[in-house]
Amino acid sequence: MMYLWKESLEQTRGKGLWLGIGVLMLASLFLIAEARFFPSDLGFEAMLLSVFDMNMYLLPLFSLFLSSFSVFQEKELKTSMILLTKRESTLSFLWKKSVAIQVILISLFLGMYLLLAIFMKFFLAFHVVSFLRFLFVIVVFLLIFNQLGIFLGVACNSKMQLVGANILVWFSIVFLFDLMFLYFLPIVTFDNIRFFSWIYFLDPIHTMRFYLETGLGLFSLTHMSRMMEKFVFMDLGILMAMNAIFWPALLFGLASLFRNGGMFDD
């Protein structure tokens, strides 16, 4: 509870959180207003997918910076050393800090989307199930990128290094990996598409968008070609669960391994 209270005070006092929320809300409001001219049957779902596509570029950047600098600040202000000296082990500190960051940031961003839901209700035919599915994807999205930011905050030893790492990771995940997929796409065949599918769906952004697109009824999984059926060989809910568990667990493990390089000592 102490970590949650401390994290909430630190995040809400900073300008970065409110800047991120303000930018996301402003961009989302433009998309909501534009969605008034969408067809009425799937206009709300198309708007949610458009909001997610916009979030795909902005939300990882804000999430990485907020979570990584929250951890880095503990090292910079020496509060981590005080906690570790008194009663905490490094693993316990990382776990409690990670939980606090996840709970506070996810809660604050969900609050923003719930506020946006008021505007959605006025402009569009609001569908509760579709909106809850969208919120679920956002929670998984934040869970992964918050944990990635925590790892970077532990691994980096200076602010300049941390800023560079955040931008490099954001650029790689959002842009570079997609360019690599496009480069290798011409050599994908019916025989090796299963291998390509594993790599494709281990990218959480791809999995989340495909899950949201099918869940909102904007893409049908029926009457697909044999190649497409082999590509989507596993239930998308299982793939979402795998990404939601595998990546945060892996990144937490890496953070605990890098703690000495990041100047965390037992």
How is this structure best described in words?
There is one protein chain. With 266 residues, this protein is mainly α. It has one domain. The chain contains eleven helices and no strands. The protein has helices at 2-13, 15-34, 43-76, 79-86, 90-123, 128-155, 159-184, 193-201, 204-215, 226-231, 236-257. The radius of gyration is 20 Å and the shape is globular.
Salient structural properties:
266 residues; mainly alpha; transmembrane; membrane; transmembrane helix; Copper ABC transporter permease
What class, by secondary structure content? mainly alpha
Distance separating the two termini: 22 Å
Helical run tally: 11
Mass-distribution shape: globular
Q: What is Rg?
A: 20 Å
| SSE arrangement, N to C | HHHHHHHHHHH
Q: Residue share in helices?
A: over 70%
Runs in which pLDDT lies below 50 for 5 or more consecutive residues are none
Number of domains: 1
| Overall residue-averaged pLDDT value | 88
Number of strands: 0
Quote the beta fraction: under 5%
- Main sheet record: none
